[in-house]
Amino acid sequence: MNPSIALIVFSSIAVTSCGFLASYFLFIKKEDRLKDLSLGLLFIAIAFRIAKSIFYYALPEISSIGVGLGFFGFSCIGPLALTYFNINYNKLTNLKPTTLLHLAVPIIGFIIILINSNAYAYNMYLLANVSLAAYLGFIANRFIIKSKATELSKWNNVLFYALVVLAAILVYQLLGENINAYAIGIGLSSLVIYFLFFYALQSPVVTKKVNTKALSPILLQKIKTAIEDDQIFKQPAISLAQFSEAIDTPTYLVSKATKSIYKKSFPEVINSFRIQTIKQKLSQPEFANEKIEDLAYDVGFNTASTFYNAFKKETAMSPRAYQKEIHEKVFSGN
Question: What is the third-level CATH fold of 3-207?
């Protein structure tokens, strides 16, 4: 077989494997939606970048759309990797809207390449290399160096160093002076993808599915007691990790159990009980003149804005409007 054709087939299978991983995290795993979403999108971004190299190697006259999509995927690797590691190590259940600002460079760069018909493609890809290096440096300093020896950290370390190797290969490919260097870059990049694919298949952190049989009645009752009787939801800024540690139960089981009991995610359950407690107080005459923000702080809310948003989501009205409606019903005898 022609070596060029063999390389294209070898690399195309690698990109397909990347797509399989992405599909698994996006549509099948469904345990930690935010974490799985960021990881799935990360593998899609990698697939876009390597696919662009394959098309460029096979068809040097690749369109500006193809080059632009390759750049978009390439420049998204750093932001998506940072998002994934941030979610893992900080146990995040939602992201700030400002996270979307990390997509500014990928979007602007894509538009520049599209408008100028690849005239600035080399410079934009060089910028993507520098950006990825900066992101990886930040991730190393913030998360990798400080990580402890856990099963999760093993997978994260492998993923991080694989991204470092991939970044180095892509720098070599970009700065190479001939087609041979470009071909070597494609082959080595594909090897990184194969390594990640097979490591992921063997990593329990990646492939582990929650055993629903583990949700024993004793565990479910322990969680209900902690929330409903002990009112642990009143603890300010209580996180899933903190709650899990308090009842000595793995976080994935707590998350699964709260959805089984209350049909809501853990943060939604905590906020719901906080709101229910405030609603009870608002319906009592002795709290008629109480400052509503103080009631919110008493049940664990850290900010007034978070409380008001949660209350409106739960009741479809403001706290004061709810209190007024309840009192009017009492006075009217209804």
Answer: Rhopdopsin 7-helix transmembrane proteins (1.20.1070)
